Every structure is written in C-alpha cells, then in structure tokens.
Amino acid sequence: MSYYRTFRSFFRIIFSLVFRWQVIGREHIPKEGPVILCANHISLWDPPLLGSGIERMVNFMAKEELFRIPVLSFLITKFGAFPVKRGAGDRAAIRTTLKLLEDGKVLGIFPEGTRSKTGELGEGMPGTAMFALKSQATVIPVAIIGPYRLFRPIKIVYGEPIDLTQLREAKPSADTLKQTTDLIMQRIRELHDQHRF
C-alpha cells in the first residue's frame, strides 16, 4: 500500500500541474465495502487518473503483455493492476476480480474494453455487468472528460451509485446482462454530457 500511495501522490502532482485536473463527486465513493468504478476510456492516462481521484486503493485489470516487461510489471502491480488475457474468457482474471470484490475492495474497469479513438463513448461489453450482478458491489459510473492536453483541464466525475436491485433479483440471462450494461453506459453518458467543457 505504501508503494501505491507514493505512486498516487506522484500522479496527483502530474494531474494538478500538467493537466489542471478537476475532481467531482468524491463523496459518492463508499468509505468501505466493495465498489466497481465504471469509466469511459480515452487514454492510457485513465487508470492512474481514476485511482488518483479518490482515497481508497483501486485495482485494475491490465493486458497480460504488460506484465512481461520487468520494470513496468513491477510498477503496475504496485499500482493495483493484475493480468487478464484479452479476447478470451480468462477464468483466472474473473476469479481474481470476484475475490477482490468479495474482500470489499475497489475495482476500476472500463466497460468499453478498449480506448475510444474519437473520445466519444463507445458500446459497453458485458464483462462489467457480469461482475456487477455476481457481486454486491456498489457500482459507480465515472466520466473522464478530456482530451489530455498540456496545461489544459481534464475532468473526472464520480457519479451517484447505480441501483441494480431489480436486475440482481432477476433471473440471470443474456437480456439481464444487456440491460445492466446499457444502464451503466447510460449513466456514464449522462455524467459526461452534464459535465463536458
């Protein structure tokens, strides 16, 4: 955790001085218990931005190729990342994710699955909805509003928790997954539209 705090402090300085960041909605993050932060994805800067905006440690999935680079592997591991095989159902990563949530930790995830080349919000993938429905985590929509340009403001907005009670009580199905995915993406889009520059 000490490494994490050090890296977070470092990134906070960068975001403050270089990108003039604005953080909105920290009060919506529960002080304890499992949380899933669901954010749009526009840059490689997004994971440290997502984690730097709040006090709790945020854990992330990262493509396994990054863990083959010795120094980078060390750094991203200390910043809360764990490997996932892209393009396949990585059962180990799924188990790790559900265990993190079961242990009351915070997961940062990008439902689109990849960075948007245009900056516009893309289509959500069902993985995030699966974690939301299989856990009792508080699901927080997050809007990252850029672009990242030197000495230009970047904004991160943590929204109010999404009520998934009815969807969690419904019979598990592809339709339930889609409804949950659509709801999460809708809330991210609303935050983005409400707070855009």
Characterize the structure shown.
- The protein is 41% helix and 17% strand.
- The chain has a seven-stranded mixed beta sheet, sandwiched between helices.
- The chain has helices at residues 2-17, 46-52, 70-78, 91-102, 126-134, 165-169, 174-195; strands spanning 22-24, 35-39, 58-63, 81-84, 106-109, 138-145, 155-158.
What's this, in brief?
The mean pLDDT is 92. Helix 1 (2-17) crosses helix 2 (46-52) and helix 5 (126-134) crosses helix 7 (174-195). The protein is an alpha/beta fold and 197 residues long.
Q: Structural class, judged by helices and strands? A: alpha/beta
Spatially, the strands of the biggest sheet line up as: 1-7-6-2-5-3-4
Mean pLDDT: 92
Shape: globular
First-residue to last-residue Cα separation: 34 Å
- Give the low-confidence spans: none
Report the C-alpha radius of gyration, rounded: 16 Å
- How many distinct helices? 7
List the helices and strands and how they pair.
Elements: H1 2-17, E1 22-24, E2 35-39, H2 46-52, E3 58-63, H3 70-78, E4 81-84, H4 91-102, E5 106-109, H5 126-134, E6 138-145, E7 155-158, H6 165-169, H7 174-195
Parallel strand pairs: 1-7, 2-5, 2-6, 3-4, 3-5
Antiparallel strand pairs: 6-7
